[in-house]
Amino acid sequence: MQISEKITALINEQINAELASAYLYQGIAEYYAFAGYVGFAKWFKAQAKEEVEHAEKFIDYLEEQGKKVLLSDIKAPSNEEYRDLREPLEIQLTHEEHVTALIYGIVAQAKEERDYGTERFLDWYVKEQVEEEANARALLGEYDLAKEHGEVLHLDSKLGKRE
Q: In CATH, what number does 5-70+82-159 get?
Protein backbone atom coordinates (compact mmCIF):
# COMPACT_ATOMS: atom_id res chain seq x y z
CA MET A 1 0.00 0.00 0.00
CA GLN A 2 1.42 3.35 -1.02
CA ILE A 3 1.14 6.30 1.29
CA SER A 4 -1.59 8.85 0.64
CA GLU A 5 -1.15 12.22 -0.99
CA LYS A 6 -2.00 13.87 2.35
CA ILE A 7 0.81 12.04 4.16
CA THR A 8 3.14 12.69 1.23
CA ALA A 9 2.41 16.41 1.52
CA LEU A 10 2.96 16.37 5.29
CA ILE A 11 6.26 14.56 4.91
CA ASN A 12 7.36 17.02 2.24
CA GLU A 13 6.54 19.82 4.67
CA GLN A 14 8.54 17.99 7.34
CA ILE A 15 11.54 17.64 5.04
CA ASN A 16 11.53 21.38 4.57
CA ALA A 17 11.09 21.93 8.32
CA GLU A 18 14.11 19.72 9.02
CA LEU A 19 16.20 21.61 6.48
CA ALA A 20 15.01 24.91 7.96
CA SER A 21 16.13 23.61 11.37
CA ALA A 22 19.58 22.96 9.93
CA TYR A 23 19.65 26.48 8.52
CA LEU A 24 18.56 27.96 11.85
CA TYR A 25 21.17 25.99 13.81
CA GLN A 26 23.93 26.87 11.37
CA GLY A 27 23.02 30.53 11.86
CA ILE A 28 23.14 30.11 15.63
CA ALA A 29 26.51 28.38 15.28
CA GLU A 30 27.81 31.34 13.33
CA TYR A 31 26.55 33.73 15.99
CA TYR A 32 28.43 31.85 18.70
CA ALA A 33 31.55 31.47 16.56
CA PHE A 34 31.66 35.20 15.90
CA ALA A 35 31.19 35.86 19.63
CA GLY A 36 34.18 33.59 20.36
CA TYR A 37 32.27 30.66 21.86
CA VAL A 38 33.71 27.87 19.72
CA GLY A 39 32.20 25.10 21.85
CA PHE A 40 28.67 26.44 21.45
CA ALA A 41 29.39 26.91 17.74
CA LYS A 42 30.60 23.32 17.36
CA TRP A 43 27.56 22.02 19.24
CA PHE A 44 25.14 23.89 16.97
CA LYS A 45 27.03 22.89 13.81
CA ALA A 46 26.60 19.27 14.89
CA GLN A 47 22.89 19.97 15.45
CA ALA A 48 22.64 21.42 11.95
CA LYS A 49 24.20 18.29 10.44
CA GLU A 50 21.83 16.09 12.45
CA GLU A 51 18.83 17.98 11.08
CA VAL A 52 20.02 17.40 7.51
CA GLU A 53 20.26 13.68 8.34
CA HIS A 54 16.67 13.78 9.61
CA ALA A 55 15.55 15.34 6.33
CA GLU A 56 17.45 12.71 4.36
CA LYS A 57 15.61 9.90 6.19
CA PHE A 58 12.29 11.45 5.24
CA ILE A 59 13.50 11.87 1.65
CA ASP A 60 14.54 8.22 1.52
CA TYR A 61 11.13 7.19 2.85
CA LEU A 62 9.26 9.13 0.18
CA GLU A 63 11.52 7.73 -2.52
CA GLU A 64 10.92 4.18 -1.22
CA GLN A 65 7.19 4.88 -1.44
CA GLY A 66 7.50 6.06 -5.04
CA LYS A 67 6.50 9.58 -4.09
CA LYS A 68 7.95 12.85 -5.31
CA VAL A 69 10.08 14.95 -2.97
CA LEU A 70 9.18 18.63 -3.20
CA LEU A 71 11.64 21.10 -1.74
CA SER A 72 10.45 24.61 -1.03
CA ASP A 73 12.05 27.89 -0.07
CA ILE A 74 13.69 28.09 3.33
CA LYS A 75 13.46 31.38 5.15
CA ALA A 76 16.85 32.69 6.18
CA PRO A 77 17.41 32.85 9.93
CA SER A 78 17.48 36.29 11.44
CA ASN A 79 20.86 37.94 11.04
CA GLU A 80 20.11 40.21 13.95
CA GLU A 81 22.20 40.02 17.05
CA TYR A 82 20.68 38.07 19.89
CA ARG A 83 20.09 39.98 23.11
CA ASP A 84 22.46 37.65 24.97
CA LEU A 85 24.04 34.19 24.78
CA ARG A 86 20.92 32.60 26.26
CA GLU A 87 18.42 33.70 23.61
CA PRO A 88 19.54 31.23 20.91
CA LEU A 89 19.12 28.44 23.46
CA GLU A 90 15.55 29.57 24.12
CA ILE A 91 14.91 29.71 20.38
CA GLN A 92 16.26 26.18 20.00
CA LEU A 93 13.87 24.81 22.62
CA THR A 94 10.87 26.60 21.12
CA HIS A 95 11.86 25.41 17.67
CA GLU A 96 12.22 21.78 18.78
CA GLU A 97 8.76 21.94 20.38
CA HIS A 98 7.42 23.20 17.03
CA VAL A 99 9.11 20.35 15.13
CA THR A 100 7.68 17.85 17.61
CA ALA A 101 4.18 19.20 16.95
CA LEU A 102 4.70 18.80 13.20
CA ILE A 103 5.81 15.19 13.60
CA TYR A 104 2.88 14.45 15.90
CA GLY A 105 0.62 15.84 13.18
CA ILE A 106 1.98 13.31 10.69
CA VAL A 107 1.58 10.53 13.27
CA ALA A 108 -2.04 11.57 13.84
CA GLN A 109 -2.73 11.52 10.10
CA ALA A 110 -1.09 8.10 9.74
CA LYS A 111 -3.23 6.78 12.59
CA GLU A 112 -6.37 8.24 11.02
CA GLU A 113 -5.55 6.60 7.69
CA ARG A 114 -4.47 3.35 9.35
CA ASP A 115 -1.12 3.72 7.60
CA TYR A 116 0.81 1.44 9.93
CA GLY A 117 4.01 1.54 7.87
CA THR A 118 4.30 5.30 8.15
CA GLU A 119 3.31 5.15 11.77
CA ARG A 120 6.16 2.68 12.48
CA PHE A 121 8.57 4.78 10.41
CA LEU A 122 7.70 7.80 12.55
CA ASP A 123 8.38 5.98 15.83
CA TRP A 124 12.07 6.84 15.51
CA TYR A 125 11.24 10.52 15.03
CA VAL A 126 8.94 10.60 18.04
CA LYS A 127 11.74 9.18 20.22
CA GLU A 128 14.25 11.53 18.62
CA GLN A 129 12.10 14.57 19.36
CA VAL A 130 11.75 13.58 23.00
CA GLU A 131 15.55 13.50 23.09
CA GLU A 132 15.92 16.77 21.15
CA GLU A 133 13.59 18.63 23.51
CA ALA A 134 15.29 17.12 26.57
CA ASN A 135 18.71 18.13 25.24
CA ALA A 136 17.53 21.67 24.50
CA ARG A 137 16.03 21.99 28.00
CA ALA A 138 19.17 20.55 29.59
CA LEU A 139 21.43 22.92 27.66
CA LEU A 140 19.32 25.87 28.71
CA GLY A 141 19.51 24.72 32.34
CA GLU A 142 23.25 24.12 32.11
CA TYR A 143 23.72 27.58 30.65
CA ASP A 144 21.71 29.18 33.46
CA LEU A 145 23.73 27.32 36.07
CA ALA A 146 27.03 28.14 34.38
CA LYS A 147 26.05 31.81 34.06
CA GLU A 148 25.06 31.94 37.73
CA HIS A 149 28.46 30.56 38.76
CA GLY A 150 30.56 32.40 36.18
CA GLU A 151 31.42 29.22 34.32
CA VAL A 152 30.07 29.86 30.82
CA LEU A 153 33.55 29.30 29.36
CA HIS A 154 33.69 25.92 31.09
CA LEU A 155 30.35 24.99 29.49
CA ASP A 156 31.68 26.23 26.15
CA SER A 157 34.68 23.92 26.55
CA LYS A 158 32.40 20.98 27.42
CA LEU A 159 30.20 21.60 24.37
CA GLY A 160 33.28 21.73 22.16
CA LYS A 161 33.94 18.07 22.92
CA ARG A 162 30.78 16.90 21.15
CA GLU A 163 31.51 14.46 18.35
A: 1.20.1260.10
